[in-house]
Specification:
Length: 598
């Protein structure tokens, strides 16, 4: 299906399903045009007054977010509403606020124009980040900036707290503050033109169990308030003004989906064990602590990837050791006795804190990031390691280094870890002495020497998102080459096999925490290759578990061997798709050339 198709009076859009479910209803169009900003000069005697006007707008924005947070804590829980704190901290950021004041003074321009110029520079810096997971923070900065601009211009922001019952919100974009105000039962779904699976808005939609589809270009220009609409968050499809036949078809799909969801709840607490006794450990990827209730609801057996970058974002300073510790301890206690694998900081210095020395890089994807950055900024690294070790006293906490490319980096990181352990012993602080220390295999050099790395790592976790991109030289966010991003490419499958065998020979577990791990289409291939641990978005866990519990390791091994014999990614994909549709028709189908997962 193309991204947009018009048939008669109806329009069909294909986007990204970020929160599962099917909803049929009527549209409330959130017509929130961006503030139009024009430049004008300010006379020297009015510069300070202009700065004061800007400061008042910033304070007003803080007050608005604080008010929303306070009103919503009871309705949606403290954890979710705490996401707004990050937005409030952004309003204290030295770069955003300080640079705007500097721009007003130096250029003698109006506050709106000064803020716009600073925002543009701030936002552009995010485009250089290689990790797509981090790019979502760019949207948060845009939301905060837009709020300040509206307060400067005196424009009101429409609240989503008092909408009529049963509406589906359609907007260009939604801020987390918008999503938090959506009351369950009133807003039954939402659709936006921009966004991704890991945006804060998407995370909140899943937590609130609101079906949502994002990335639908042009929909706000074609939709009107009151139009009928179908939102299919499972397939990422939105149908504007459906005819009667489509409505009836989707009513049946909705009924089947609700039945399927009820059936999945029955296996929530059962092990992911094949019919011939092979046990697979299914864990969840954690983006924010606010996702913990959702992780437990979907029956995750721990956290296989605890991303810690949120602690460093949208703030004017570095997080303290105590901040790290409180977050990690809470997760360890809540998930106990299941493991919590905490990945150390996986980003570059330009995004950690505005006061750190920044490094200009022409190719950040291959530059000073992840473990390389931590080994350079050792004070930051030590504070995080101390917190992880302290938290290990309260649950099965494990540490994982990202982007390890060779043995030297692993040894250097472990030397720092041992030094931190000595400090804690001297201080009498309890921690788990033999804490497991694993590494992410996400660059080809690590895969090629996996046999060497396995001698000094407690476990491997394959990050397929980066491993595939680096192996195939593909930027999957680049629309011109994204079609070449192929998880079943022979080079990828052989690399995965090599990593698993290296781990098996050394007797260490090998897991996966990339998107491939949570795709039901691939789970039997991964099982057949020998993966013991899979970590994924939490709502994928019951779907993958259902398939694993219905098969045997023997048939998974046979499928993996077939894939290993394929010469091309296309041939491998056809083999897997054909097998999975035949074997699991209730879970996987193909419609219009697209793979559909119920």
């Amino acid at each position: 299906m193309s991204p947009y198709e018009e048939i008669g009076h109806r329009s069909i859009f294909k986007g990204i399903g970020v929160s599962p479910g099917i909803m049929i209803g009527h549209i409330h169009l959130l017509d929130r045009q961006r503030v139009s900003v024009r430049r004008h000069e300010v006379s020297e005697d009015l510069v300070e007054a202009e700065i004061s006007r800007f400061k008042r707008a910033v304070e007003t924005s803080k007050d608005q977010l604080e008010d929303i947070k306070n009103r919503l804590t009871h309705d949606v829980g403290k954890d979710l509403s705490n996401i707004l704190i990050a937005h409030m901290l952004t309003l204290e950021d030295k770069m955003l606020v300080g640079k705007t004041i500097e721009e007003i003074r130096s250029s003698r321009v109006n506050a709106e124009w000064a803020l716009k110029k600073v925002l543009e520079k701030y936002i552009q810096s995010f485009d250089a980040i290689a990790d797509e997971e981090m790019k979502k923070w760019k949207t948060d900065i845009e939301h905060v900036g837009e709020r300040v601009l509206r307060n400067l211009s005196g424009q009101q922001m429409e609240s989503l707290g008092e909408l009529p019952d049963g509406v589906i919100v359609v907007a260009h974009d939604l801020a987390p503050s918008d999503t938090l105000q959506m009351k369950k039962g009133r807003v039954v779904g939402f659709v936006t033109e921009v966004g991704g699976r890991t945006s804060h808005t998407a995370i909140m939609a899943r937590s609130l169990e609101i079906p949502a589809v994002v990335g639908l270009d042009r929909i706000t220009t074609l939709a009107e308030t009151g139009d009928s609409v179908i939102v299919d968050g499972n397939r990422g499809i939105v149908i504007l003004r459906p005819d009667e036949a489509l409505r009836i078809e989707y009513e049946e799909r909705q009924r089947r989906y609700r039945y399927y969801e009820r059936e999945l709840t029955k296996i929530r607490d059962l092990p992911a064990q094949t019919q011939d006794g092979t046990l697979i450990h299914l864990a969840a990827n954690l983006e924010l602590p606010e996702e913990l209730p959702t992780i437990l609801e979907y029956g995750a057996a721990g956290i296989g990837l605890f991303r810690t970058e949120f602690l460093f974002m949208n703030r004017p300073d570095l997080p303290s050791e105590e901040e790290h510790f409180q977050v990690y301890r809470a997760a360890a206690e809540r998930l106990s006795p299941h493991p919590v694998i905490i990945r150390t900081l996986d980003m570059g210095g330009d995004k950690v804190a505005s006061h750190l020395a920044q490094v200009e890089e022409s190719n950040p994807a291959l530059g000073l990031r992840a473990i390389r950055f931590c080994l350079r900024e050792q004070d930051l690294f030590r504070a995080q390691l101390r917190a992880i070790l302290r938290a290990s006293h309260f649950g099965d906490v494990r540490v994982m280094y990202p982007m390890i490319s060779g043995l030297r980096e692993l040894r250097e990181a472990n030397l720092i870890l041992e030094d931190v352990k000595r400090d804690l012993r001297r201080e009498g602080v309890p921690f788990r002495e033999e804490i497991p220390v694993g590494i992410m295999i996400e660059v080809p050099s690590a895969a090629l020497i996996a046999d060497i790395l396995a001698k000094e790592a407690s476990f491997f976790s394959v990050g397929t998102n980066d491993l595939i991109q680096y192996s195939l030289a593909i930027d999957r966010m680049n629309e011109h080459v994204a079609y070449l991003y192929e998880p079943l490419h022979p080079a990828v499958i052989r690399t995965l096999q090599m990593i698993v065998e290296a781990g098996r020979r050394q007797g260490i577990p090998v897991g996966m925490c990339g998107e491939m791990a949570g795709d039901p289409l691939y789970c039997l291939v991964l099982l057949g290759l020998g993966f013991q641990d899979l970590s994924m978005l939490s709502f994928s866990i019951p779907r993958v578990k259902k398939i694993l519990r219905a098969c045997t390791y023997a048939e998974a091994r046979a499928l993996a061997e077939e894939v290993l014999r394929c010469d091309t990614a296309t041939e491998a994909h056809e083999q897997v798709l054909k097998y999975m549709i035949r074997r699991f028709p209730e879970d996987i189908s193909e419609e219009g050339g697209q793979v559909c997962l119920l």
